[in-house]
Amino acid sequence: MKIGILQCDSVLEEFQAQFGDYPQMFITLFKQLDNNLQFQIYDIRKKEYPHELNECDAYITTGSRLSVYENIDWLDEFKHFLRRINQGSQKLVAVCFAHQLVAEVFGGTTKKSDKGWGVGISTNQIISPKAWMTPYQTTLNIVVSHQDQVTSLPKQANILATSDFCPNFMFSYGENILAIQGHPEFTDEYSETLMKHRKEKIGKSRLEQGISSLQKTSDELLFARWMLRFMSQ
Questions:
Q1: Edge-to-edge, what's the strand order for the sheet holding 2-7?
Q2: Quick check: is 197 catalytic?
Q3: Cβ 129 vs Cβ 204: under 8 Å
Q4: List 8, 146, 166, 183, catalytic entry
Q5: CATH number of the domain within which 162 lies
Q6: Which residues partner with 178 through β-bridges?
């Protein structure tokens, strides 16, 4: 399988030597499960896109520190790409920023949450099991880093996983799009580094909660299996 990685942001330069950039994080994650996978990176900030959707078998997005309601010069073309995906046959996994943008594009709403920052490992309940969720479990622990949230879903969206902090944590839209607020590509070490870098924004109490949450076992490999099954359906 060839996976197209749509890059929406970059790791801060001072952290790249240790952690690499966001596309490499996904490649490292997926290669743990299938070393034969191929990847193509598209930097959509530079308006790099596949000429045809079938250039790759499936697509995944990185997150971004930006907000989907900001005036971003490359956002309109990204919205157009999401509509093309919805009308085509290739699958897309929309992570964090793109999860929020999928909601916006198809009739939902994203806003800055009055609950503050979501950081560390988030525990979510699976409320709509799917065949690609194999092996199955009822909860999903995934690293998060966000202050925006999807506050209302598109009418045709199917909510898949939820928590009290982030009710619309994971949903599907149509047959081709899977959207998740969390970051399966983030390691615990990178999560902690990012939290400490943003400590003034996050606040002392939330920072302590986030770092403490890293004691949980994260399900990034399980979710990577789920993503590959979803992509290959």
A1: 38-43, 2-7, 58-61, 91-95, 177-180, 170-173, 157-162, 118-126, 139-146
A2: no
A3: no
A4: 183
A5: 3.40.50.880
A6: 93, 172
Among 8, 99, 166, 185, the active-site one is 185
Q: Which amino acid is at 17?
A: A
Q: What are the tens digits of pLDDT across the range 111-166?
A: 999 999 999 999 999 999 999 999 999 999 999 999 999 999 999 999 999 999 99
Angle at 41 between CA 70 and CA 228, to 5 degrees: 95
Amino acid at 87: Q
CA distance 178 to 172: 4
Using an 8 Å Cβ cutoff, are 43 and 7 in contact? yes
Which range of residues forms the domain containing residue 8? 2-232
The model's pLDDT over 32-68, given as tens digits with 9 standing for 90+, comes to 999 999 999 999 999 999 999 999 999 999 999 999 9
Give me 170's structure tokens: 């994971």
- 178 Cβ contact list (under 8 Å, min separation 6): 91, 92, 93, 94, 160, 170, 172, 227, 230
How many residues appear in the chain?
Answer: 233
Active-site residue flag, 96? yes
Confidence of residue 10 (pLDDT cuts 50, 70, 90): very high
* Catalytic residue (one of 96, 99, 146, 220): 96
Instruction: Tell me how many domains the chain contains.
Output: 1
Side chain identity at residue 15, one-letter code: F
Convert 94-107 to b/e letters by CB count within 10 Å (16 or more is b). bbbbbbbbbbbbbe
Helices vs. strands in the chain: H and E counts, helices first: 8, 11
What is d(CA 86, CA 134) in angstroms, rounded to the nearest whole number? Answer: 24
